[in-house]
Amino acid sequence: MKELLWLIVALPFAGSLLLIIFGTRLSRFLCAIIGVGSVSMSAVLTLLVGTDFLCGNPDGKAYVETLWQWMNVNGLSPDVAFHLDTVSLCFIFVITFVGALIHLYSVQFMWKDEGLRRFFIYMNLFVGFMLTLVLADNMLLLYLGWEGVGLCSYLLIGFWYQDPANGYAARKAFIVTRVGDLAMTVGLFVLFLNFHTLNIQVILTAAPGTWPVGSGVALATAFLLLGGALGKSAQLPLQTWLPDAMAGPSPVSALIHSATMVTAGVYLIARTHVLFELAPLAMAVIAFIGALTLLVAGLAALNQHDIKKVLAYSTISQIGYMFLALGVGAWSAAIFHFMIHAFFKALLFLGAGIVIWALDEEHNMFKMGGLWKKLPVTFWTFLIGAASLSALPLITAGFYSKDKILWLSYASDKGSVWLWLAALAGAFLTALYAFRMVFLTFFGEAKKEPGQIPGLLMTIPLFVLAVLSIIGGFIELPGDLGHFTLFSDFIEKTLPVTAIAITGHYTEFALQCISAVVAIAGMLVAYIYYYNKPFPATEPRRNRLQQFLYLGWNFDLLYNTIIVQPIVFLSAIDKNDFIDKCYNGLAALTVQIHSLLSAMQNGMVRRYAVVLAIGAIITLTIIFYL
Amino acid sequence: MNIGIEQGMLLAAVLFLIGLTGLLVRRDIVFMLISVEIMLNAAGLAFIVAGSAWRQADGQVMFLFILTMAATEVAVGLALIIQLFMKLKSVDIDRANTMKG
Amino acid sequence: MNTVFYISSALAVFATLKAITNKVAIHALLYFIVSLLSVAVVLFVLGAPFVAALEVIIYAGAIMVLFVFVIMMLNLGRETLNDESGMLKREMFIGPSVISTLLLAEIVYMLVHQTAMPLSLKTITPAEVGQLLFTKYMLVVELGAFLLMSGIVGAYHLGQKEKLVHHRFLKTEKDIA
Predict the structure, then answer these.
(1) Which end of chain B, N or C, is surrounded by fewer C-beta atoms within 10 Å?
(2) Across all residues in chain B, what is the average pLDDT?
(3) Which residue in the set B15, B73, B91 is minimally distant from C80, CB to CB?
(4) Do A461 and A598 have their domain in common?
């Protein structure tokens, strides 16, 4: 069974290829079947391969399946090989399952769109690349998946390409992540230079012996890889592309920009954890960036009126939590939060997609209202998702994962109380903006009537994800509430155990109570300010601070002034430089000669006769004198 | 008789060049054709002179053919002039410049 | 004999010059005919009586007459005469004269550097010409015949009046019949 690992990756690619070649000749129904079927079969295969992998493998020994040797160039000989261990198993489970649910949802969501075939081609391609990324055995194959998901993200953000703003958003996403990818490429160069291979396991075993802790090379490599992770995961300072990426359809936002692609950075850091452990400064920077990002994004989310932008900033903020966890060495906590976040964030995006779809492309929350009666299933699942996001104590999965991070940010040997305070503030903000969103969208007076009611294809994924958002947390209970460590044991077969500096169940319980109070306080503040309040059906008026936060702390303006304008200015100067003058001069010369020659063809017989006579003179001269 | 061949040839050349000048100067179609005839006649004279210098009859045979060709050419050329005159309604040859460019 | 040659050649050159500088077509033709006759005399002097006779009969007698007839048919009026004066200006002679002078200079240079061959008074009889024509230059005679035939046919066709094409709805009974 384990040997079918390659099929998990191949099926989405095959589905995409089939749709590319035959798509225009197939009916829409058949295209949808192929699109959803390929990912669903991958999901089923993941279950089978996973159970086979775990049976009789208590240590979680990795399973490597080599397909073929990719190239053999001057010492670089990567193979196309897939490496299955507990971490990648967790990731492919999330990708294929959530992916299959989102594909099912998007059948009905995109049914009336004429680009349905194109959509499934891109989505399947994306799932294929993402699976390649997480299953890659060597850094080059991982980079292939990395670039592939970036490409699919560009294609899908700009899916409705007739509107140039969507194309601009797609280009922005691609270029900003490219900056990070550049750093990552240089990091790969450094790795190859030092280890003469790009095989991940080989590097990870050889690194502690080759590089002393805190050495310059280790720091440089760690920072370069971190650059790539920051770009892909939309953390400070490369986070500007994710809010604009909401120009794509909602299933795209659900799959790519909440559950999977943006967590590729988390995966990268977790996978190469040895290199980061050799560079403590880098880990500290990761934690700091995570904490800062979650605050910045949380404040920005509070001031948005577009429902998808709230969720986008929320994603940035939650990945900040994951980065925080990675930075303090809480590897399994980060993976746990990734999984739970994938569930409830996809749920939230799918729900928001239904609201937008039902209200005929209305994105402004202030123009919505009173939908809790009209769209009941959507409302209840969305509420569960928002509760999970806010980490409502004890009953939602989000509580267990976020709480673990909060505890470890305080208690880990690399943690500090400042990180914990920042995470706590973030939790308050999260609850506040999440329930602001719920109250504005679903409560209050109904400003617009839903035009279409979602069918089964859209509500089944919501239902499944809502259930997962509740029960998903029960696989990992904290120390004082039962100490059920199924998930962390699972992950810690591959990743190191978190070193804890501060122990004590009472401390943990106290901190949990504080975070629970904070979350409920956030919900209450949202209730006070936003429940059933009459808001005008326009964008809200904002004072200067709110406007600044609304614009995402105006990073766009900053980057525009520092980077974009100088480059545009320089390229405008360079437009007519010396080399261009040479080429233009050549063209101008040709035109001149042409106009001279065309004057000779004037249709006047006598002039032709004159030319004949002159020619005769010249010929005679040549004959005589030469 | 002590006329050298050069003098005969010189006569032929002078006549030819007068015809060429007429061809280049005149704008009237009819005059251009007359100038062409002048040139043809001069060329034929050159052949006769050469035949006389070599004391052979070949020069005269050539002149005969030039005469034949001139006759045909005049016939066809005049027919064309008539057609052109009908089209252009004038004898100015510069009017017939639609092949321009 | 020399004097006859020189006088005739001078006459020919003068007549040709007058021919190309005339405004009236018929006058130019007449001058050209004079030139042709002078050239015929020169041909006699050079010992080619057959060709001289042919020149007078065919060139001056047939071709030039054809010319005169066509010019009569063209019926160029007084406007053409005025146009003619406009077209023929003194300044226009400069360029072509330069070209012709250059060519003349080159030809004179050529002639001067040639081996001297005196012209003879020996008369070449028509019998000799005929002999050559029908033995050595047989094919060229046939080709000449072809050329004349095609000339006749071509001139006939080209000389036809163009038929005006009426649209069939505009045709009157006279046209159909």
Answers:
(1) C
(2) 88
(3) B91
(4) no
Residue-range definition of the domain harbouring residue A80: 1-207
Residues A184 and A160 in one domain: yes
Domain ranges of chain C: 2-176
pLDDT band at C173; cut points 50, 70, 90? low
Q: Does C58 touch chain B (CB under 8 A)?
A: yes
pLDDT band at C94 (very low <50, low <70, confident <90, very high): confident
Same domain, A490 and A581: no
* Gap from C117 CA to chain B (nearest CA, Å): 6
A557 and A443 in a common domain:
no
3-state helix, strand, coil in chain C (%, to 5): 75, 0, 25
Same domain, A565 and A583: no
Chain C contacts of A625, Cβ < 8 Å? Answer: none
What is the tens place of the pLDDT at every residue in C107-118?
Answer: 888 888 877 777
Last residue of a domain, one of A491, A524, A540: A540
Q: How many domains does chain A have?
A: 4
- Residue A275 CA to residue A195 CA, distance in Å, equals 12
| Residue among A47, A12, A93, A475 nearest A260 (CA) | A93
**Contact yes or no for A232/A177 (Cβ under 8 A):** yes
Give C-chain residues touching B52 at CB under 8 angstroms: 46-48, 119-120, 124
For residue C103, the chain A residues in CB contact (below 8 A) are 613, 616-617, 620
CA distance B98 to chain C (A): 20
| CATH 1.20.120.1200, domain C2-176, yes or no | yes
Nearest CA to B15 out of B34, B41, B33 is that of: B41
A42 with A16, same domain: the answer is yes
- Interface mutation vs chain C, best among B11, B69, B84, most C CBs within 10 Å: B11
In a domain, A256, yes or no: no
Contact C63, B70 (CB under 8 A): yes
In order of A404, A417, A594, the CA distances from A511 in angstroms are 11, 11, 85
Predicted pLDDT at A10: 93
Which C-chain residues 94-123 have CB contacts (< 8 A) with chain B? 95-97, 99-100, 103-104, 107-108, 111-112, 114, 116-122
| Alpha carbon distance A398, A484 (integer Å) | 16
Residue A400 domain flag:
yes
Cis-peptide, bond into residue A534, ω within 30° of zero: no
Contact list in B for residue A613 (CB cut-off 8 A) is 20, 24
Q: Is the pLDDT of residue A540 over 80?
A: no
Residue A260 lies in a domain: no
Sequence letter at residue A466: A
**Are the beta carbons of A621 and C106 separated by less than 8 Å?**
yes
Domains and their CATH numbers in chain B: 10-90 (1.10.287.3510)
Å between A589 CA and nearest CA of chain B: 19
Give A 573-612 residues with CB within 8 A of chain C.
610
Q: Which residue of C has its CA nearest to A613?
A: C99
Distance from CA of B97 to the nearest CA of C (A): 17
Amino acid residing at B54? W
Residues of B in contact with C137 (CB under 8 A): 61
Is A618 near chain C, with CB under 8 Å? no
Nearest to C52 by CA among B79, A571, B52: B52
Domain shared by A450 and A549, yes or no = no
Does pLDDT of A226 surpass 70?
Answer: yes
Domain annotation covers residue A238: no
A519 lies in the same domain as A607: no
pLDDT tens-digit map of A261-295: 888 999 999 999 999 988 899 999 999 999 999 99
Say if strands A63-69 and A79-84 run parallel, antiparallel, or are unpaired: antiparallel
